[in-house]
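Page 42, continued from yesterday. The earlier attempt failed because a stray header line got pasted into the input along with the sequence. Redoing it now with the clean sequence only.
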Amino acid sequence: MKDIKTQLRLSMNGAVSQSMREKGLVYKLNFGVELPRIKNIAASYTKNHELAQTLWKEDIRECKILAGLLQPVDTFYPEIADIWVENMPNIEIAELTSMNLFQHLPYAPAKSFQWLADERELVQVCGYLTIARLLMKKGDMDERVANEFLDQAVCAFFSGSYHVRNAALAAIRRFMQHSEEHAFMVCRRVDGMKDSPQESEQLLYSLVRDEVGG
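This time it went through. Structure tokens are written below.
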């Protein structure tokens, strides 16, 4: 930990840190270290459960990011995943942890669906972002699961916060990109929304049509 913090201090970027604060990404401590440098620091260490858990407990931006990079998958049990997600500080860490860790978990498909059903904003965001990553890698869903996913994602697009809507849309797009059959399922869902009195329905219709090139 001491060595890592020394490296972070040596890589500080005050301008980046200030820019993040202005955009609403508030941390107790933010060194403003850019992502490629954080990945370089992580690459010099072997993945280690205790180190990653200690890093996660620090209210420091770079430590949270490093935790996701240095956490071994085999010791990251579902109950620990829930604790991390429940304490997710902001959208940046949600995006990076979903990419660096959550998508690689053997139980990610089932766990991400649990997160979708949660009422908390960043828990839902982690669910949709993890599903989007899984769809990029594999994309297979049986029809029942696919319909459940679309029910929740469309509902989240209409009623969720800004970040939840964006994450849900990202997952819908990845779902459509997997196959023509998936794209057709989504098109069928939005078919009657073109002339809807609801602006959000019109928006989803146009975003889906843009995705299929029509």
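Notes: The mean pLDDT is 93.
Reminder to self: strip header lines before submitting.
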